[in-house]
Every structure is written in structure tokens, then in C-alpha cells.
Amino acid sequence: MLYPLIRKFFFALDAETAHGIGMSGVGFLNSAGIACLVAKSIPADPVEAMGLKFPNPVGLAAGLDKNGDHIDALASLGFGFIEIGTITPRAQPGNPRPRLFRIPEKQAIINRMGFNNDGVEKLLSNVAAAQFPKRGGILGINIGKNFDTPIEKAADDYLICLDRVYNAASYVTVNISSPNTKNLRELQKDDALDALLGSLKAAQAKLADKHGKYVPLALKIAPDLEDAQIQAIADLLRQHRMDGVIATNTTLSRAGVEGLPNADETGGLSGAPVFDLSTAVLKKLADALAGELPIIGVGGIMSGADAAAKIKAGAKLVQFYSGFIYRGPDLVGEAAAAIARLRAG
Prior knowledge:
Helix content: 25-40%
Number of helices: 11
Strand order of the largest sheet: 3-4-7-8-9-10-12-13
Largest sheet: 8 strands, parallel, barrel
Structural class: alpha/beta
Strand content: 15-25%
Order of helices and strands: HHEEEHEEEHEHEHEHEEHEHEHH
CATH architecture: Alpha-Beta Barrel
Radius of gyration: 18 Å
CATH topology: TIM Barrel
């Protein structure tokens, strides 16, 4: 009952300002030892995927904590895993504000943040200071390219980030699907993706030898893909022996929000309206992969039933971001309970 009152206050503020205050508030509750006021105990429901053992299958998607400033606070809310980033080699401010917009009538968000972050070295400093990874918590680090790196040199940025974060991450996500960095989605096309995955997997093998541990690599894809593109991506994921895939990022579609305030803003749409599109891509990808690598389902999860539907469609794990903004920490437990019931038969 507490979060709806808090949300009313936050939703009266500019979306990005509210986000900053909200994250600071979660940090305060954790440091004061009273995160239990907004979080519920999550029963253990272990899941093995990408060679890792997740205590429960409900994760926080990248984007909420870009720099890893709030890892321990977010972990205290019961997530089975936390993904931070997207991080780039160099710090960059992102797109001009305003760049984050709510559409509350449809439980939706549009963002055109543009990979705003403090750079990979600051993120690593924050990870080193966090207790969650030291206690064995599963921490994903999501990597991207700087906005001013030419698309033909994009692989260089991903390789720099992979090299730097490898030893600090439980797994690394390669984000080629944000709509807010010019031409980034071009990397999803056959030849470009083939070359990128080949470079990353070669680097992963060298880093595994160097550090004496294997850190899985996952690819994050867009929901705005034709069936032939989904099949081609699945074929390349198998060919390069990628460890996982995250389906999906935000959409450029405005289906379901037409005519509403903020609906015409440029950027990626997330939240409830992307659920059907994202889940359809997930299902097609699962069919194409035939269980050969795990899928993390993300996009429009606003309830426990939504989370269970992603698992039914073929996901092994789920993540959310917009659902957390609209529903608060209760969604973590609700999603975990719904998936546990489904898995129990």
C-alpha cells in the first residue's frame, strides 16, 4: 500500500528528476536498514542459465542503474539478479533533456536517454564498492558504444568495455538494440552481427584464459524485427555459441498509445504497450533456438501473470524496468511467486 502513495508524489515531478530522487530514496532505505518497508521476502526458486545459478528468475533490466550507483539497494528488494548499464568506454551526457516521458494512461514510458553514463571506469569503481557481487549476487553489465564512435568502428567500443568489465561481471550483455544511438540497430543485420559476435567471442576466449574464469555473453535485441531477421539472429547466436539472448529492448512503434500526451515524443517505448510485441518476438526466437541457449524475457511485464507469460513463451528468466516504476517493489515478489507456481505445475 505504501508505493502507490510514493508514486503519486514522484509522478507529479519531471520523470528524470523523479528517477534520481527515487533511486536516492531506495539507497537511503537500504543504508538505514529499513528496505523491508517496501520489499517483501522472496522465496528461493533457483534457476540455472548461462552456467550461472540464479536464486530466483526475476531480474532488474539495464537502464535503471546505469552507473552501478545503487547495486546493493536494488538487490535488497529481492531481485534474483541485477543488470547495470548501458555503459560506454567514455563518459557521455546522452541526449538533451527532457528525454524521459511517462504515459500513465497506458503504464508506458518513452525514453531517448542516449546511453548517458559516467564511463566504464566509474562503473567499475562502483561495482568494487558494492557488497552484492562479493556475496555471490549475480550482476550483469550491459555494454554499448559511444555516440560519436562511427558505426564501422563500433566493435572497438564493445571490445574495450568487455575487456574492462569482464572480471567484475557475472555476465555481460551486448546492447545493439537501443533506438537512441544513431545507426546502432544496424549492428543487428546479418554481416555486421556476424562480425561483431565473432570478435566478441574471440575476445571472451582470451579473457577467460587471462582471468581463469568464463563470463557468459548475452545479446540484447529489439522487438522491431521481421520473422526472417529473428531467424537470422537465432542462427548467428547458435553459430557463435553465444551464452544467452535478451528479448527485447524498447520499440519504435506507438501502437496502443496513439493520440495520448507524450506519445509523439521520439525514443523507445516501454511498459505495458510493448508486452504483446515483445512476447511475440520472444516466442519466435524460442522456436528458432529450440532450447539451444537461454532467453531472458523483458518488455511490458506489469504483473505476475505477465512474468509467467514470458516463461510460457520460452524465457528462462525475466527482467523489468518500466513495471518497477509503475508497480514498485511489490512486482518483484509477485513475479517471482507467479513463476514459481508455473514451474511447480
